[in-house]
Amino acid sequence: MNTNQITASVPTKCDLLVRADVVVTQDTDRRVITSAGVAITDGLIVEVAGYNELEAKFQPTQRLDMAGKMLLPGLVNGHTHLPMTLFRGYADDLPLMEWLEDHIWPVEFQLTDEILSIGADIGCCELIRTGCTAFLNGYFHEYITGDAANAAGLRAVLGEGFFHFPSPHFPTANDCWDTIRTLDARYDKNSRIRTAVTPHAAFTVNPDELQASFQLATDLDIPWQVHLAESPVETAVCLEKHGKRPVELLRSLNLLTPRTTLHHCVDVTDDEITALAENGVNVVHNPASNLKLCSGLSPVQKMVDAGVTVGLGTDGASSNNQLNMFRDMALAALIGKVRHEDASAVNAQTALDMATVNSARCLGWPELGRIEKGCPADMIALDLGSPNLMPMFSPVSHAVYAATGMEVCMTMVAGEILYLYGDFRTIDVQALRDNAFSAVEWVRTKAKK
Q: Is the pTM of this model over 0.70?
């Protein structure tokens, strides 16, 4: 008898074996596998293949039968302000600058840690429910969002926001540097929480502060993110203050690099797109927010064609009213076609790439956004029994155009199930509802009269 044959027939142990009708891997080859399975050990994906093949190969400690379901990588929200769920529906139907200056900023200056925690918890709950497993954040007192995400089991990249004028936390931008270092050290050993350096925008932070903050990001070896070219109004302000358009200003300061992630990039020229591509800059598209604030339609397909990595974000729930990446995927594809007058622009695969592998690169976390051997086991499942997902010719098309996010029936991070068939396993939803009522009353009392 051949000893090698006996050894080869012994199943390999794994922690979890997941079965599904379809797995959309988002791997390098963009494989879509039917009658599929995923083997997981120590929070990492060991193998993705046909279920029968994995069943014969592995001896799992646990099994998860997702028959009738489609597995996708956990979606990655490339730009949000999680605690701004506090302002969902508070100041609607207003242009960007009026919305910020007359409504949002006056209340933000009065935020407390307790209220911020409620907003962050609500945001985590919504992300989990709609299949998002990682996000790039920018706000104040970021350790609160970090602790909320950590407790909920999500991944996050935290950016402590600052301006050149006094903010809710800092008298000046330079006062933020120590806080950023402290925040980075706080999560240094945490596998799910990372940090970024986050100046607000080119028109709200002085050039020398932009450069100093980028040097800090370089020293800490973390991403540097900023709102940029969000609207023609921002461009006009930037021209008046600095004599340069936003992209040109950053280029003159040597801030267009692969470490850089720019949010929005609505008002950009062809030459500026070329500069973004040549310098390896990441861009996050925020279609719902751009539409609601009437900021404009970003030339996404032009950026993709030029070689720019374009991710996808919801922005905050105050300028989107949702943190639902499925809605933003659909909007990105639909308005991309109108923006370029081309029905093939921003196709379904491009939109799904934006919400997964591309957003992961915008977070500086490229191993996320894919179901692939060696990558973290961050996955979600859609219920294919939902009427709006019947019949199915293309899983990718369904994920982008047909799904709403409410078909998500399972959300997993690092092999840990956070949500399954209506059961939130890391969040007390009833307590969260009670806290949300308190938050409404708090915002009303602080609103500008």
A: yes
Structure confidence by residue, pLDDT tens digits, 358-402: 999 999 999 999 999 999 999 999 999 999 999 999 999 999 999
69: which strand partners?
383
Q: Which residues pair with 40 in a beta bridge?
A: 16, 45
> What is the phi/psi pair of residue 204, to 5°?
-120, -5
- Whether 429 contacts 125, CB under 8 Å: yes
d(CA 145, CA 157): 10
d(CA 78, CA 365): 11
Which domains are seen in the chain, by residue range? 10-73+369-424 (2.30.40.10), 75-362 (3.20.20.140)
Asked if 147 and 186 count as a contact pair (C-beta separation under 8 A), the reply is no
Binding-site members for Zn(2+) are 79, 81, 227, 315
Q: Which residues are annotated as a binding site?
A: 79, 81, 108, 200, 227, 230, 315
Neighbouring residues of 37: CB distance < 8 A, sequence distance ≥ 6: 17, 18, 19, 20, 23, 48, 49, 50, 51, 53, 54, 55
* Buried b / exposed e along 269-295 (16+ C-beta atoms within 10 A): eeebbebbbebebbbbbbbbbbebbeb
Binding residues for substrate: 108, 200, 230, 315
**CB neighbours of 134 closer than 8 A, spacing ≥ 6?**
74, 76, 77, 154, 155, 156, 157, 360, 363, 365, 368, 369, 378, 413
CB atoms < 10 A from the CB of 206, how many?
17
pLDDT in tens, 182-237: 999 999 999 999 999 999 999 999 999 999 999 999 999 999 999 999 999 999 99
C-alpha distance from residue 329 to each of 7, 194, 313, 325 (Å):
47, 25, 9, 6
